[in-house]
């Protein structure tokens, strides 16, 4: 068997991951293996890039080879110099995305299997507040999907690239009016899915994927009352097995993207000198 070593590398520096593929020729033909590892710099010493640290983060070219930030030299006939060159040449075009728009107190993860995490809670609260502002009516409840938040909030400086990476999809904010009886049905739908999704304005308890109890605004749901809900268009008609539109009395669509909802909030906090933070607070409790 002949090993061709590393054929290509895709370095996603913004989220700290390194994808490496290795190929080997066997009697059955070429065998390809992909592996994802943490971008800890142990190969070439490369680190996350800003416009101020391209050389120190990505290394330099000297003579006929490439020198990684950790001092390791790679000859020009290896694939590493070509990849490094592509990354370096791309940096000026990415400069607009490297602008710092806010600051975060800590890194906030987003896991689909955990319904009560700081990032999901934070964004659901932001979405409900934005709905109240834009639709000029107090929002009782908000729900968005975890799958739409694609990467964590970093600790410290937050760049435009971070926000766009968090919300890469064209999901739009919308306003729904729903009777309490159907709101209970919606919560039952959410309880029956793999993850409850990110919510704001309610305290919910689920056991064995069945709704046990729910308070909205600190009170039991009134089946005859009309509730104001901020959500996203993806969940209106079957996204993540949720069909909010079918339960609604009224639906108001907007052209407000979720990425802009988060970006506006981050910029507003930065202008006020507020460090962004979120917490797990027990708003959704799921028991097996």
Brief synopsis:
The protein has 288 residues and is an alpha+beta fold. It folds into 2 domains: 97 residues, no CATH class; 187 residues, 5'-nucleotidase,  domain 2, CATH 3.90.780.
Structural notes for this entry:
- A five-stranded mixed beta sheet has the order 11-8-15-10-16. The protein has a four-stranded mixed beta sheet with strand order 14-13-12-17, covered by helices on one side.
- It is built from six helices and 17 strands.
- The protein has 288 residues and is α+β, with helices and mostly antiparallel strands.
- The longest helix is centred in the middle third of the chain and has 18 residues, at 118-135.
- It is elongated, with a radius of gyration of 23 Å.
- It has helices at residues 54-58, 79-90, 118-135, 160-166, 180-191, 258-271; strands spanning 2-12, 17-26, 29-38, 60-62, 65-67, 73-75, 100-104, 141-144, 156-159, 172-179, 198-200, 202-207, 210-216, 219-220, 226-232, 250-257, 284-287.
- Mean pLDDT is 84; it is low at 1-23 and 36-41.
- The chain is 24% helix and 34% strand.
- It has two domains: 2-98, no CATH class; 101-287, Alpha-Beta Complex (5'-nucleotidase,  domain 2).
- Helix 3 packs across helix 6 (258-271).
- It starts with a strand and ends with a strand.
């Amino acid at each position: 068997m002949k090993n061709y070593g590393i054929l290509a590398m895709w370095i996603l520096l913004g989220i700290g991951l390194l994808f490496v593929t290795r190929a080997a020729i066997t009697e059955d033909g070429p065998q390809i293996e992909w592996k994802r590892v943490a971008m800890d710099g142990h190969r070439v010493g490369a680190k996350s890039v800003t416009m101020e640290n391209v050389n120190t983060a990505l290394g330099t070219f000297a003579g006929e080879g490439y020198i990684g930030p950790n001092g390791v030299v790679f000859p020009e006939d290896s694939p590493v110099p070509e990849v490094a060159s592509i990354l370096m040449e791309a940096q000026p075009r990415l400069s607009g995305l490297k602008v710092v728009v806010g600051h975060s107190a800590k890194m906030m993860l987003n896991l689909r299997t955990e319904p009560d995490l700081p990032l999901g809670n934070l964004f659901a609260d932001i979405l409900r507040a934005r709905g109240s502002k834009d639709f000029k009516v107090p929002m009782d409840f908000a729900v968005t999907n975890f799958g739409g938040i694609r990467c964590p909030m970093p600790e410290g400086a937050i760049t435009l690239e971070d926000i766009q990476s968090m919300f890469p999809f064209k999901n739009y904010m919308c306003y729904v009016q729903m009777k309490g009886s159907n709101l209970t049905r919606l919560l039952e739908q959410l309880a029956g899915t793999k993850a409850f999704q990110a919510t704001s304005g309610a305290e919910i308890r689920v056991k064995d994927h069945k709704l046990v109890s729910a308070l909205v605004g600190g009170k039991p749901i009134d089946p005859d009352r009309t509730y104001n809900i901020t959500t996203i268009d993806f969940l209106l008609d079957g996204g993540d097995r949720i069909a909010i539109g079918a339960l609604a009395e009224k639906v108001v669509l907007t052209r407000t993207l979720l990425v802009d909802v988060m970006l506006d909030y981050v910029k507003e906090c930065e202008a006020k000198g507020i460090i962004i933070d979120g917490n797990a607070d027990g708003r959704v409790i799921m028991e097996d």
